[in-house]
Amino acid sequence: MLLRPVRETEEDAETVHLVAKASFGASHALKGDAPSEPSSEAPSEDGSESLADRRRARSQEKIRHLVRTDPAGSWIAEDETGQAVGAAQSLIREGTWGLALLVVLPGAQGKGVGNALLRRTMEYGRACLRGVICCSRHPAAARVYRQAGFELHPTIRMRGVVDRVRLGTPEGAAVEGSARDRDLLDSIDRRLRGGAHGPDHEFLLRHCRLVVADDLAGSGYCYMTDQGKVELLAATSRRLATRVLSAALLGVEEGVVAEVQDVTAGQQWAVDVGLAAGLELRAEGFLCFRGMRPPAPYIPSGAFL
């Protein structure tokens, strides 16, 4: 087995995307979950790209973004024939290290590929005091991360069509954010997790709707994808977190299934919002931390942590 850096090319981005798609598909089947992506690759009736095409393009752009900003944190594992059998991507933001991706093809699992990739990405972050990983329900994942020295915090996933009447109107103003809010966003990040997301906000602003609240009571923000998924949330108080999450959920299009992942037991304010919105709750995976307490009020991004 050979580990090589991921290059910032379309070819390598496609390779990592395909390995991840195969790995996640096998993982969903193992857990009895439905596929996370639509099975049809056909374009829509008006000739525009399908949802699967858009997700694929966004996935590849995210992969290249991480390679560009953290070239030493992204690796591909190849077998003796040169076939990619695994991939990992990690990032460092102001002293906080995060594992953005760790995937191994089903046929190569249990052969040390994942451990080798994890060790290489952790070497990249060895000088960082803080570390974060969003861990799935895959049976082996929690064991691997715990053995690597991370504390495991069980999480909840909330999902469903938003009941706008039950949720009600947020208390206080929450407005649409933009690139002009970058300093505010970075300031909130540093207060909660010790390091700003920095260039990741540029990516998120291109692909998500941003809701911001900033007044004498504090500050908060929430990114929401077009598909109704909370991508990242941070706030200086539970009240502000409740406000931006409520506003983000109310902004989801009618009939779209909203989703909030990686909610730890310490985030009961988020549970209350989800229940008020009519979302269904279920146990999901783990948030893994090293050298830091779980940030709160905070809902991490699976890719940018």
UniProtKB/TrEMBL annotation:
InterPro entries: Acyl_CoA_acyltransferase, GNAT_dom. Residues 51-64 have a biased composition (Basic and acidic residues). Transmembrane segments: none annotated. Residues 27-64 are annotated as: Disordered. Residues 32-42 have a biased composition (Low complexity). Residues 37-168 form the N-acetyltransferase domain. It comes from the Bacteria. This is N-acetyltransferase domain-containing protein.
